[in-house]
Write a structure and sequence with these properties.
about 500 residues; mainly alpha; Serine Threonine Protein Phosphatase 5, Tetratricopeptide repeat; two-stranded antiparallel sheet; signal
């Protein structure tokens, strides 16, 4: 692989505190293989911004289509290939390089050189684990033991997803062991998530472990149960606020998905998918008007304001009505500069509660599942500035009703369906990944132009062309409809 020189667009925050521009943190224009100890304060936010870029931009846009929050607009063409499930290997070259060269290599450099800045090392371990999990969930088997050696080897071996997950759990534990809120060298503004609040990082670590153990519940149920029970024994605390990176409207620091839209001349390629719209409309969900634009259409001779989607993959037909777009709150509205301000959420408070609810349903974690389920809904409403509307929704919405028993996975279905609604437009990769793991929500439809065959959905991303053509140890391409390891 060649060295990547790229400036990752990200946050212009905490300038008053730091007395400097964010470019000090976020320019990645040099080989970082031999950093000094002081450099860890620059490498850490740069690496975090790189993970965020891929999560929101390349993976986020594609997953928003495959999670059926959005579909390709009939009036443009950028994501027709994605809607057809025909993603090319070349489309993965850039996200792969950003993940390995800008994110993971810099986390590793921080870990190897943190010195007195052990809290930076703790965060680097946790975000390294997060990024490796994201990568293996996207592509399957990936380089592990022979990766991050600091060179340009063209022969890097691949390891199994199970081995990657074992390393993820190990890195989280190593990060947890380094956390010391009393450490005098704790991070400041270079911590793009919590501004040096190490208790929040402890919660992040526990929540990430819970997420990862639930991910492998079908592939390695014994390991999943033991890991979650260990969290219970340790009286682990979990996130009650979003772990997110916030952005600004200044040039080069916009939300990464909006940066993609700007690069395409603000063309509105993404429109609302009727899959998500119809399901949320059936529940009279007020979050719709936060997550999508409202359009005016005629109904029985009267103009009414509505949220309207089109069927997945129906870009070949011009609809006889106006269609909603993803809103600025998601970063997906091309003609609204407020899209630049949309945060990239790594783990949300709502997700944290839903993860706890599922673990409690399985009997592995303390807590009342129904209460945690409703707390997840409330946290989602709060994140969308709709706290006051949550009680009425919980009382009346069909998909907000807690099943009396878990017969046929009814309670888990309720949890994951609400998680899907909560992640709409904001955690699209995780929503698509959870659908692959659980099969919920159960109302997905195959794209009208899907090219994988009858009834087939994409279950992974293709490996990048750079691996096919330059890595002598590349194990071979895999079809998009082949499930990853934990997808049983």
């Amino acid at each position: 692989m060649t060295k990547l020189k790229i400036k990752i667009a990200t946050v212009a925050l905490s300038l008053a505190i730091m007395g400097t521009g964010c470019s000090k943190f976020l320019d990645v224009n040099e080989n970082p293989n031999k950093p000094t100890t002081a450099d860890v304060k620059l490498l850490l936010p740069s690496a975090a911004a790189s993970t965020s870029h891929v999560l929101s931009n390349q993976l986020g846009i594609n997953s928003g289509l495959w999670a059926q929050y959005w579909t390709q607009s009939p009036y443009s063409s950028q994501y027709k290939t994605n809607d057809r499930y025909l993603n090319t290997s070349t489309s993965q070259d850039r996200p792969w390089l950003i993940v390995w060269r800008n994110a993971l290599q810099n986390y590793e450099n921080v870990i190897q050189n943190y010195g007195q800045f052990s809290q930076h090392g703790a965060i680097a371990y946790l975000l390294k684990a997060y990024t490796f999990q994201m990568a293996t969930d996207a592509w399957g088997d990936i380089p592990l033991k022979e990766a991050l050696k600091g060179g340009d080897s063209l022969a890097v071996g691949y390891d199994t997803q199970e081995a990657v997950y074992d390393s993820v759990f190990s890195w989280i534990s190593k990060g947890q062991a380094l956390i010391d809120p009393a450490n005098q060298f704790k991070p400041g503004a270079e911590d793009l998530f919590f501004n040096g609040d190490m208790d929040q990082w402890r919660r992040f670590a526990n929540t990430m472990k819970l997420r990862a153990y639930l991910r492998i519940v079908k592939a390695a149920p014994g390991k999943a149960e033991a890991g979650i029970r260990a969290l219970q024994t340790a009286n682990a605390t979990f996130l009650e606020k979003d772990a997110k990176i916030t952005y600004s409207s200044s040039g080069g620091n916009e939300n990464p998905m909006f940066a993609e839209i700007l690069g395409l001349g603000r063309t509105q390629n993404l429109v609302a998918s009727s899959t998500a719209i119809d399901a949320m409309t059936a529940n009279k969900d007020p979050r719709l008007k936060v997550l999508y634009t409202t359009v005016t259409n005629e109904y029985n001779g009267v103009d009414i304001d509505t949220i309207v989607g089109i069927p997945q993959g129906s870009y070949g037909t011009i609809p006889p009505f106006q269609v909603s777009f993803p809103s600025a709150a998601t970063g997906g509205l091309g003609d609204d500069n407020n899209s630049a301000l949309a945060p990239v959420i790594f783990i949300s408070a709502a997700e944290s509660y839903f993860l706890q609810a599922e673990a409690a349903v399985r009997g592995w974690l303390a807590g009342t599942p129904a209460t945690l389920f409703r707390s997840g809904i409330t946290a989602s409403f709060t994140a969308n500035n709709l706290t006051a509307a949550a009680p009425a929704y919980i009382a009346a919405a069909p998909d907000a009703q807690w099943p009396a028993t878990n017969a046929n996975d009814a309670q888990i279905k309720a949890i994951i369906t609400q998680k899907y609604y909560a992640m709409n437009g904001k955690q699209t990769f995780e929503a698509w990944t959870e659908w692959r793991r659980t099969g919920f929500p159960s109302f997905f439809v195959v794209s009208k132009v899907g090219a994988l065959g009858a009834g087939k959905f994409p279950l992974r991303l293709p490996y990048p062309n750079t691996e096919l053509t330059t890595n002598a140890k590349f194990p071979g391409a895999i079809k998009l409809d082949v499930p990853v390891w934990w997808d049983k």
